[in-house]
Amino acid sequence: SAVISQKPSRDICQRGTSLTIQCQVDSQVTMMFWYRQQPGQSLTLIATANQGSEATYESGFVIDKFPISRPNLTFSTLTVSNMSPEDSSIYLCSVKGAGVNNEQFFGPGTRLTVL
Amino acid sequence: ILNVEQSPQSLHVQEGDSTNFTCSFPSSNFYALHWYRWETAKSPEALFVMTLNGDEKKKGRISATLNTKEGYSYLYIKGSQPEDSATYLCAFTNYGQNFVFGPGTRLSVLP
Question: Measured between CA atoms, how close is A47 to chain B, in angstroms?
Fold first, then answer.
């Protein structure tokens, strides 16, 4: 298993501002994943962050809105840019386990409210 | 587009009641079905990973079954306790290894 921490745990932000969320893992991992859960919706994958290359974004998510950094094998950041109330969500980072079933281990999430 | 559904959306039960929820997923290209428990302000906790049709898994008072041919899984909680209150998520993975989550079932156990 992996122990994952996220900062901040929650924040309330004004429309038009940006917030950077940090994710720290207690072991080196190749891939880190960023998800969001909007109110009443499913957890949805935003992007996959690989160390040493650009993140791969899922359909509907773009780098200008959600820039991601992956400076080393234990750390990643996700920035939510030019926020609007629709960005109010829980944002989680995750990593895959080493087993054959590719379990995912998650951070505790960042609860973002945009006014 | 892969779609995973869960029902009910939310559930209130009395302490000591037994309960169950459903996860429906695509039956084609199935690889694994994952169940998670997610308490507020905590990390989602993996409960089960199920891969074979007919699988049954148990962890304490919680158990799960899997039917890959018809595309559903049931999660059962026997003798619910207040500490079982959480959102229960299922996630389907196919051979592409993408995780597709359902919207969750929010369980409240009243003392």
Answer: 11
